[in-house]
């Protein structure tokens, strides 16, 4: 199947059958998420991979009791930095220098520019910016899952405060942003599986400026 066929095959799965996704496929989905581009390359979020059934059970009532939370194979939680700090910014710039093996004046000037703007902004503004970056990675994970013919359900329908509490995210300086159960569809129990995919027409979606 080519990518577009797989993207038509995927849907926001409403019922999963509990079957385990092979680790090799999970690794590829997570790698696609890790390779997603982010603003200034800061990657201001982390992913928690939950296979512990008790933890999934704890989360479910705080996620509108959506059954995929417990019937999935792996529950991915995308959690963004609660703020941009000097330390967090410096860590990513230092990592770049370490991996590339050299320091570059332009890059160091860019570091100073971020250091003189991001930490001074409100935590709320910085968290919102960080959360947007998590969405990019989330999209990459959804597409990678489809590519691997693994089902997933993108989820904003949960209480971030409750999930933060369950996963002790506050003490890590993180806030949950998105859930992504991955697993396999339970066709007999899924009201959406046979319904046509609904998208705006290309004409209403794309404007060519030639
Ligand atoms: C950010 C985001 C949050 C969503 N939250 C939920 C959710 O909590 N529960 C759910 O069943 N579907 C959720 N959806 C699924 C959307 O409703 C679905 O992707 C959209 O209707 C398009 O349908 P499709 O994904 O089946 O093609 C979410 C999708 C996105 C992208």
Automatic annotation (TrEMBL):
Signal peptide feature range: none
Domain of life: Bacteria
Pfam families membership: Nitroreductase
Keywords: Flavoprotein, FMN, NADP, Oxidoreductase
GO molecular function: oxidoreductase activity
Gene3D superfamilies documented for this protein: NADH Oxidase (3.40.109.10)
The protein's required cofactors: FMN
Domain Nitroreductase: 9-184
Family: Belongs to the nitroreductase family.
PANTHER family in the record: NAD(P)H NITROREDUCTASE YDGI-RELATED, NITROREDUCTASE
Protein name: Nitroreductase
Organism whose genome encodes this protein: Chryseobacterium polytrichastri
């Amino acid at each position: 199947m080519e990518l577009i066929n797989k993207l038509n095959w995927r849907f926001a799965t409403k019922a999963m059958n509990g079957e385990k996704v092979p680790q090799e496929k999970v690794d590829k989905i997570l790698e696609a998420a890790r390779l997603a581009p982010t603003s200034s390359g800061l990657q201001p979020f982390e992913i928690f991979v939950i296979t512990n059934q008790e933890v999934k059970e704890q989360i479910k009532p705080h996620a509108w009791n959506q059954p995929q939370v417990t019937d999935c194979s792996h529950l991915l939680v995308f959690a963004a930095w609660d703020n941009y700090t000097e330390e967090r910014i410096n860590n990513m710039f230092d990592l770049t220098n370490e991996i590339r093996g050299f320091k570059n004046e332009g890059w160091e000037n860019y570091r100073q520019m971020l250091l003189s703007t991001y930490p001074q902004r409100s935590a709320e503004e910085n968290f919102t910016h960080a959360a947007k970056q998590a969405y990019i990675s989330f999209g990459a994970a959804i597409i990678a899952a489809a590519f691997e013919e693994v089902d997933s359900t993108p989820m904003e329908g949960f209480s971030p405060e409750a999930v933060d509490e369950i996963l002790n995210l506050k003490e890590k300086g993180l806030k949950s942003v998105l859930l992504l159960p991955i697993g396999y569809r339970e066709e007999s129990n899924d009201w959406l599986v046979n319904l046509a995919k609904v998208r705006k027409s290309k004409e209403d979606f794309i404007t060519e400026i030639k």
